[in-house]
């Protein structure tokens, strides 16, 4: 900060209301006194004037209308912050790092993030926080601080009065400083690929493929809650990771596998009905051992990847879905016999199976 700005601040802080007291005779000092010594001497002179001025005292032993030390320090911090923003009117926003540097140059003290958060908790309108979008940088270089304006114009004095009034009210009620206000959620610009690589180990730790994992146990909500708490990836990337993980989990979920297998078998029922009718008609039979039916259907299948177990499941599903047309019974030797009913309406059975296959997604 320039020496001109420091001089203006010292004059503004040293100015008091009403008529000024005659200046004291300053002790003789060398003409070559440094700037820090001058600032320290002027501060000591101001403190002497304050201590000498008589004022009423309240029951707690401090001047009437005066704030407690921690309240007054918080208000003094805000006044200096307003001065920093006032001397650089073209810089409406400052990073936390930049503001801390300017504050230290101004008064030689530090202002922390907790001080700013406490100021905003005492008077929410006195400060506003934002981010530059530099998610890979430290917070002090990404977090921005701004003093809100009113109708596009600065209103430092209005914010000061409101803050002083709120602090005075808290002090009068005997309450302590308010708790820290929350910072806004820090956005992240991680891409989908970066997010998936970043959470790969966590997803694997909750993967249902692991031994001892309960089938069908959803872990995406746990993963999402973990990363939302730690503010590591954006919500959009988290949703994409959740969808990808749910899709992967369903591939290995036993219940989902069974449901998918049943839907696939239902979609094959009309074709199986036609093939079964053709087989019995070609042999001119109404009943056949089930152990002979399955190999015959296997030899006439179009999809060579279809397994025998799938054909058996489809036959069982056909018997359950159309009991009026076919049934499986056991003979005296315990052999399972598949028999077709001669009096059933095959067209109605075919329409019924078509509806069942269309209902399966």
How is this structure best described in words?
It is a single chain. This protein has 361 residues and is mostly helical. The chain folds into three domains: 69-172, Arc Repressor Mutant, subunit A, CATH 1.10.10; 192-252, no CATH class; 261-359, DNA replication factor Cdt1, C-terminal WH domain (Arc Repressor Mutant, subunit A, Orthogonal Bundle). It has 16 helices and six strands. It has helices spanning 3-14, 35-52, 69-87, 96-107, 113-122, 139-142, 156-172, 192-198, 200-205, 220-230, 235-252, 254-267, 269-283, 290-299, 308-321, 346-359, and strands at residues 93-95, 128-131, 143-146, 287-289, 326-330, 336-340.
Question: With helices defined by DSSP (H or I, 4 residues minimum), what is the helix count?
Answer: 16
Spatial strand arrangement across the major sheet: 1-3-2
Specify the helix fraction band.
55-70%
CATH homologous superfamily assignment of the largest domain? DNA replication factor Cdt1, C-terminal WH domain
The CATH architecture of the largest domain can be named as: Orthogonal Bundle
Keywords: Cell cycle
Domain DNA replication factor Cdt1 C-terminal: 258-328
GO molecular function: DNA binding; DNA polymerase binding
Biased composition (Low complexity): 1-13, 26-35
């Amino acid at each position: 900060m320039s020496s001109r700005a420091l001089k203006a601040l010292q004059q503004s802080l040293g100015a008091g209301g009403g008529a000024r007291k005659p200046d004291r005779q300053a002790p003789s000092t060398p003409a070559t006194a440094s700037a820090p010594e001058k600032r320290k001497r002027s501060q000591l002179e101001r403190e002497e004037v304050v201590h000498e001025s008589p004022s009423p005292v309240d029951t707690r032993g401090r001047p009437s209308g005066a704030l407690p030390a921690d309240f007054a320090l918080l208000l003094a911090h805000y006044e200096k912050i307003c001065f920093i923003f006032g001397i650089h009117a073209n810089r409406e926003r400052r990073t936390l790092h930049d503001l801390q540097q300017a504050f230290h140059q101004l008064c030689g003290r530090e202002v922390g993030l907790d001080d700013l958060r406490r100021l905003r908790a005492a008077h929410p309108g006195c400060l506003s926080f934002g981010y530059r979008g530099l998610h890979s940088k430290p917070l002090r270089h990404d977090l921005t601080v701004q003093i809100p304006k009113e109708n596009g114009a600065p209103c430092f004095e209005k914010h000061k009065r409101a803050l002083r009034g709120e602090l005075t009210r808290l002090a009068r009620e005997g309450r302590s400083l308010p708790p820290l206000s929350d910072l806004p959620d820090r956005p992240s610009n991680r891409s989908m690929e970066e997010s998936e690589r970043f959470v790969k180990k966590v997803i694997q730790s909750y993967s249902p493929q692991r031994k001892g994992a309960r089938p069908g146990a959803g872990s995406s909500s746990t993963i999402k809650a973990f990363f939302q708490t730690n503010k590591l990836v954006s919500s959009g990337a988290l949703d994409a990771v959740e969808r990808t993980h749910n899709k992967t989990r369903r591939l290995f979920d036993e219940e989902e596998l069974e449901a998918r297998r049943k839907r696939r078998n239902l979609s094959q029922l009309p074709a199986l009905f036609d093939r079964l009718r053709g087989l019995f008609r070609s042999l001119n039979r109404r009943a056949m051992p089930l152990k002979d039916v399955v190999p015959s259907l296997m030899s006439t299948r179009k999809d060579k990847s279809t397994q025998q177990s799938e054909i058996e499941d489809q036959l069982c599903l056909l018997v359950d879905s159309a009991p009026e047309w076919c049934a499986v019974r056991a003979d005296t030797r315990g052999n399972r016999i598949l028999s077709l009913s001669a009096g059933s309406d095959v067209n109605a059975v075919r329409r019924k199976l078509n509806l069942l296959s269309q209902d399966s997604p």
